TrEMBL record:
This is 2-C-methyl-D-erythritol 4-phosphate cytidylyltransferase. Signal peptide: none annotated. It is an enzyme of class 2 (transferase). The keyword Nucleotidyltransferase applies. Catalyzes the formation of 4-diphosphocytidyl-2-C-methyl-D-erythritol from CTP and 2-C-methyl-D-erythritol 4-phosphate (MEP). One of its GO terms (biological process) is isopentenyl diphosphate biosynthetic process, methylerythritol 4-phosphate pathway. The gene is ispD. Coiled coil: none annotated. Keywords: Isoprene biosynthesis, Nucleotidyltransferase, Transferase. NCBIfam families: ispD (TIGR00453), PRK00155.2-3 (NF001186). Pfam families: IspD (PF01128). GO terms for molecular function: 2-C-methyl-D-erythritol 4-phosphate cytidylyltransferase activity. SUPFAM superfamilies: Nucleotide-diphospho-sugar transferases.
Amino acid sequence: MKKYAIIVAGGSGSRMRSNLPKQFIEIGGLPVLMHTLIRFKEAFADINLILVLPDNQFDFWEELCQKHHFTVAHQLVKGGNSRFQSGKNGLSVIETDGIVAVHDGVRPFVSTDIIRESFEVAQEKGTAVVSVASKDSVRVNGQAIDRQTVRLIQTPQTFQVSIIKKAFETEELSTFTDDASVVEFAGFEINLIEGSYENIKITTPEDLEWAEIILKRNA
């Protein structure tokens, strides 16, 4: 079984109040994005890593790789104007069947166990999407709903290659919030697996503070 991971990183750093895109901010001496790539390589030594970046960030990324002597093999792919287009561009370089995970580049703390489980479930059932329960009460349009029915969706979102490629043949819709929503729209069932509250998406300065805490705790 061929294994792929499409790591999507298209952030600008605006919510981080930084001129440096959030995927390049250093934590623990390495850019966030390098931590993410390393984690997938730790999960599967034979995984094919595909990194989707805006093409105007390619040169800077190459400079960072040289600076940090980063040697984890990966293929660079030009990002699109939306998450849908970036995902589609990443899929376009996969030419064989197998299992592919799509993951946010700024989620560096996903565990190797979660990555491996997502591949196992996707191989068996076709899809596997990481999620956690909501800790907070939830309201929709002012109305309270049972939080036991709510799941907060994370990444990786992992699929049989044939399924996600078929799903991405559709035109982009504004209702697509992630890769799972595209696959579900195509008629495929989404299987949820348990995630982790440490699997944070680093988008704000507060997230960066929490990231440093997680790094120290797991050192």
